[in-house]
Amino acid sequence: MMNSMSNVEFLKELMNRNFKVIETDVIDKYQVSFVLKQADILQALVTLRNAGWIQMSYLSAIDWPDESKIEMIYIFMNWERPVHVQIRSKIDRKDPVMPSIINIYPGAKYYERECHEFFGVKFPGNPDYEKQLILEMWDDIPPLRKDFDPQAYSDRKFTKREYKEDYLVLSDQNSKKEKREVRKERAESLKGGQKV
Amino acid sequence: MKQMKLFLGPQHPGMHGNASVHLYVDGDIIKKSFLLPGMLHRGFEKGMERHSWINNISLIPRVCVVEPDINEMAFVMGVEKLLGLEVPERAHWIRMIILELARLSIHLMAYGGLGGPTGNYTLMYHAHADRNSILDIFEQITGHRVYHQYIVAGGVRKDLPKGIEKDIHAFLDSLEARYEEYRDLGIENPSIVARITDTIMLPEAVVWELGVTGIGMRSAVGKAYDIRKVMPYARYDQVEFEVPTSTYSDARSRIDIKLKELVQSIGIIRQCLAKMPEGPVRVPMGRGQSMRWTVPKGYVYSPVESSRGEFGYYIVSNGGTNPWRVGVRGASYPQGLLGVEKYLPGTRLDDAALWIDTMGVCSPEIDR
Amino acid sequence: MKSTKFTEPRKLSKEEVDRKWWEIGDFFRRNSLWMLMYCTGCCAIELPPAMTAAYDMERLGMGPMATPRQADILLISGYLSVKSLRRVIYTYEQMSEPKYVVGLGSCPINGGIYHDSHAVINQLDQYIPVDTYVAGCMPNTESVMNGFVDLMEQIRNKTAKGWIKYQENNEWYKKNQKAALGEVIIHDEFHE
Fold this sequence. Notes:
The structure holds three protein chains of three kinds. Chain A is of the alpha+beta class. Chain A has a domain at 7-137: Beta Polymerase, domain 2 (2-Layer Sandwich), CATH 3.30.460.80. Chain A has helices at 7-18, 41-51, 109-119, 150-157, 177-189, and strands at residues 23-28, 31-35, 55-64, 69-78, 83-92. In chain A, strands 1-2-5-4-3 form a five-stranded mixed β-sheet. In chain A, a hairpin with a 2-residue loop joins strand 1 and strand 2 (31-35). Chain B has one domain (4-367): Cytochrome-c3 Hydrogenase, chain B. In chain B, helix 5 (121-142) runs antiparallel to helix 6 (164-177) and helix 6 runs antiparallel to helix 12 (251-275). The longest helix of chain B is centred in the last third of the chain and has 25 residues, at 251-275. Chain B starts with a strand and ends with a helix. Chains B and C meet through helix 5 of B and helix 2 and helix 3 of C.
């Protein structure tokens, strides 16, 4: 890899030349992340794929309820110029729609299906993204959103074992305070390093 | 002839893990198939958001039961990148020993798992007997046979006990002495060779289409695309080892690469034990009480080379005491889901379980 | 000494004859239990050392079995997700009686480390009857073998009556299953 510039520099120059990058973050010399607008994503992926980043590593989403946005992330890898690229972009949370990328990276088909199941993001272009993959007969909001409480769901549906709580009741045992005071007096009255 | 619906169900002697494959079968040939994951789903990604950073070490190894140390390593490497923490030198070498021992144990188990679909149970008995010795070594080092919870952010929890080098060397010597016997039982065995030669092919175009990593990629592409060589972590650039590759990828060459990697791992452990310096093994992750340690904001992806491919954790931190989002990239997600849908049809029904074994599909990391 | 030439031997009633045959059956049953090969969760990783040469379950008479119709023990190794529980109930009802259930790990007892998960059940006793539990996360292989020896003791003392409880309290079990799972036998299994 005897290039005049390093791999990270090559990527930064490639992205900045073609797109308006909102934010760049270099994590170390093997990883860099770019934040783009939603409309630029498909073109950016085609550019990356033609530049050599042909392996798709990960596709998922992050939920930011305070900003009312869902952030999509895509991670790619190029084994000839080893850098992991993260592409992130924020989309609307009330009705999240993101065009599917299976024409560029066919391996994304099942990642998008799982993302729909856990976050509720729609992917037009993916033929069966609405079928359930990991959950079965699910009857609540998408589980990985921040307003879903798994403990409440589990307590409501699956009964817990009941334990008797009599070990917590201490009021009907004798107090050990007197014995503690007798021991303390005895220890303080001993002189000359003599232990009993 | 009419097609018949069949389950290669969750309860099956040759199946790996708890997943079922739904098949449409015409005579003996499979026409359509898809995997049904989700029976091992525990909601890890949601559970990790509810535990603090140090508390997560109890949940993290349980993601993949056969090789729990890669989970700890990937999570911890991500947290250390966000914190900018430097780990003491001796901890790097101890981590390498633990990771390579885990790789030995899972290669032995996968090679013995070849005995399930083919009916060669002697191989399984031998492999599990040797694997039990590795679990005993782990019990001496970390205190638990299977879920170690040993690698934490800042190093490892405790130093190696005295006298453990003798045990490890004795075990490695015995494994090397039996290597020829393992080859005779499995890969040179005439009754198995006929079933694995020139079947279950993985061409190079399929590798880039699905996104397969690990042994599948190296056996089809022919180059040393291994994270330990290309993006080295934890002092892998200071030990010498080779990465076996091949250009013709049928089931036999993938199993052959697995056995060669076993020999390379034995070499790495021996070099680590010889080159390890003395010193402290742990640096605390922060100050104050451990339940209130925080990590600065950031988005990081940390990949580790597991025995099945690129295994990564995607960690997002909001500056708080709990992670904001943790995503797990299972190494066999591509070939388990899209591979079964597109490339399993066409094989015979009795080769279906063998397909899933030699492609390296492990269901806990698909379901999480 | 009393001779039997002039006194008739006592005739045994039908229940007593049945009980004697049942005791002989229990002797053979507890010394050769066959276990269904179904690894449902993570504690199943301690089963290969128990089955193979390291700890050798076969000296107790136990061995693996491929089909549920011919197996004695259903081993729930670890947690059970909701999807898995539907298939386990289907398998349990396919086994022929008498049958025993052993729960490995802390997860069938009270949910274990996944007690607050949206996909894992908390108490296995509500859905199928359990005879023996082996606690731990995860239990050692020797503890697993100890659990099997306990099950054999229970069969000898005639306290392993889970399958009779399932028959007698069937409505209660079915009500619990329906409340937690919705639909137990899935009609659209192929999800099309």
